[in-house]
UniProtKB/TrEMBL annotation:
It comes from the Bacteria. Keywords: Coiled coil. This is Chromosomal replication initiator DnaA C-terminal domain-containing protein. One of its GO terms (molecular function) is sequence-specific DNA binding. Residues 94-164 form the Chromosomal replication initiator DnaA C-terminal domain. GO terms for biological process: DNA replication initiation; regulation of DNA replication. InterPro entries: DnaA_C, Trp_repressor/repl_initiator. The keyword Membrane does not apply. Transmembrane segments: none annotated. Residues 33-74 form a coiled coil.
């Protein structure tokens, strides 16, 4: 490579750097980027709010379906269903009440943590305890329904339930 070619390349690189510096100092491009970043933040917040609303609606739907199922069973057995039976009784507490009772034993863990996709070690026991409690206290809910409440597959709920029921008893001498 000759000195004239090197000099030509260096001049070309200087010209390119100068154009890039001028483009950044004009502010047009950075202002557009800032506007896009603000719009992305706004859309992210909207999506998070919608996700929370969907989770609430899914929980409400699960409770309503469980009440309908209980009423249908009662009608099939010939028992008359009273208006007060439509609401969960002491035998069938609401799902959020069950979960709140379980999460009281796990400080720092919220409902959002339990239904999140995160697989942190600190979240596994509370998540499993919540699933197990809902399964035990609400026998009117199916495994797929409980799975939908916790945003998991029904086989995950089944594994949680089996793991506790099949666990060997602690034998102390």
């Amino acid at each position: 490579m000759t000195n004239s070619e090197v000099a030509r390349q260096q001049q070309h690189y200087r010209a390119v750097r100068e154009r890039l510096v001028r483009a950044g100092s004009r502010g047009g491009r950075s202002a557009a980027m800032a506007e896009l970043h603000a719009e992305v933040k706004e859309l992210t917040a909207e999506n998070a709010a919608k996700a929370r609303r969907i989770a609430t609606l899914e929980t409400d739907l699960a409770d309503a379906e469980a009440r309908l199922l209980a009423q249908a069973k009662a009608l099939l057995t010939g028992r008359r269903v009273a208006e007060t039976d439509a609401e969960p009784t002491d035998d069938r507490p609401a799902i959020d009440t069950i979960v709140a009772d379980v999460l009281a034993d796990f400080p720092g863990v919220s409902w959002e943590d339990v239904i999140s996709v995160r697989r942190e070690r600190r979240l596994v026991k509370p998540r499993h305890a919540c699933m197990r409690a809902v399964y035990e206290k609400r026998p009117d809910l199916s495994l797929p329904r409980i799975g939908r409440i916790f945003r998991r597959d029904h086989t995950t709920v089944l594994a949680v339930v089996k793991s506790t029921s099949e666990a060997p008893a602690d034998i102390s001498d």
